[in-house]
Amino acid sequence: MKNINKFFILSPFIISIVLFSSCSNRGYKDINLKNAIKTINNSTNLIMLDVRTAEEYSTGNIPNSINIDVLSPDFKSKIELLDKNKEYLVYCRSGNRSAIASSIMATNGFIKIYNLNNVNYSDFENAILTNR
Fold first, then answer.
1. Exposure string for 47-74, b = 16+ CB within 10 A, e = fewer
2. Is 99 inside a domain boundary?
3. What is the pLDDT along the chain (132 residues), one digit of tens a residue?
4. Which of 4, 21, 67, 110 is the right S-S partner for 105, CB 3.0 to 4.6 Å?
5. Confidence (pTM)
């Protein structure tokens, strides 16, 4: 009976550790605007991946970025054509779709993925264009 009580007392603690461990090892790194600009300026192996729709991309995009819509049914087959050893800065309009894309890329063998997190696209575009 004592073992059962210990189990019920320790179960939430063990579950919390397992969940925390799995969340912290997603395979990609969330970065803010300041660190994104720093990464862009310091990396020679970085590809900027815009995961918005083609329509959104056509209204404005970061020069030299690649557009692959994460909501497109062929997203996985398109990213398979990319070099998995390069660094990727993944962004969208607000950070939600880029997190989804970053997760998919991580589970498909990409090594260096930076998710531009909680940054509005227009703020990112302005920062890139003014290099701040």
1. bbbbbbbeebbeeebbeeebbbbbeeee
2. yes
3. 555 544 445 445 444 444 444 444 579 999 999 999 999 999 999 999 999 999 999 999 998 999 999 999 999 999 999 999 999 999 999 989 999 999 999 999 999 999 999 888 889 988 988 875
4. 110
5. 0.79
